[in-house]
């Protein structure tokens, strides 16, 4: 297992991603003083986004079915826990976009190569605490 997002498992047979990009931002407040440059103080955490990208070869790896399952999960609009294969818990995320590029089509129009990008954005931790998901995820990795 490379990563799990809610009920969807990223692995070689489903959607093996080759790249994970994690962007975090923080918002700052600038405190102006009379004879110096302003000092920045952290106001609060900003956006937290993860982008997974990779290439599928449906004859070898996952394909249309895996993409459909992930897209169906995105349609729920619910945040799900995102955990990587070594047990790092990223938090609760929603899917904001799924982009695909199909190429090397056969005579029936079926792609032999599918490039994909999945964009996720972190949600409020309150949802995780409400359902005890963080605790359940930790228990799964201890066993």
From TrEMBL:
InterPro entries: Myoviridae_GpU, Phage_P2_GpU. It comes from the Bacteria. It holds the Pfam family Phage_P2_GpU. This is Tail fiber protein. It comes from Escherichia coli.
């Amino acid at each position: 297992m490379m990563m799990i997002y809610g009920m969807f498992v990223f692995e070689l047979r489903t959607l093996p991603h080759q790249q994970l990009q994690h962007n975090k931002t923080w918002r700052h407040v600038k405190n102006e003083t009379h004879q110096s440059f302003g000092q920045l103080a952290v106001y609060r955490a900003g956006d937290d986004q993860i982008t997974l990208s990779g290439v599928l070869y449906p004859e070898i790896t996952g394909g249309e079915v895996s993409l459909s399952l992930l897209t169906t999960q995105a349609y729920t609009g619910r945040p799900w826990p995102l955990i990587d294969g070594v047990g790092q818990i990223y938090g609760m995320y929603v899917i904001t976009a799924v982009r695909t590029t199909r190429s090397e089509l056969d005579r029936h129009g079926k792609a032999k190569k599918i490039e994909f990008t999945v964009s996720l954005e972190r949600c409020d931790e309150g949802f995780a605490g409400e359902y005890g998901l963080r605790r359940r995820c930790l228990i799964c990795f201890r066993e």
